[in-house]
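As a warm-up, study this chain.
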Amino acid sequence: MDSVLATGNPGAYRFGVAVLSPDQGCDHYADWWEVVGADGQLLYRRILGHSHVEEQPFSRAGGPVQIDPDEGVWVRAHMHPSGYGGRVLKGSVSSGFSYADDLPTLWHAQLADVPPLPNECAW
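Now compare it with the structure written out below.
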């Protein structure tokens, strides 16, 4: 994870997320980024349909994310096939986002099985 920028209105924010990942092709790539609420619930997941070997870091937007401006959330990426890893950003729309280096490695790892999930890698 490299950066997060949220824009829009309460209850319908659009997140612009920059991901820095060690993509190697369809066998190893960032297959989604997601927004997780303070209660550990998946609030939004942006599926990434292909590897970004030549585009690092890469940015993709998604939404709407139904949160209030002061609501704290975490934004993280998922790698196929290794799972969650790398840096996580924590913050809110009103205060901005910064690295949350104090999260356990397997923090809410069960979310990896919650839809929506990617079908396959396009390239």
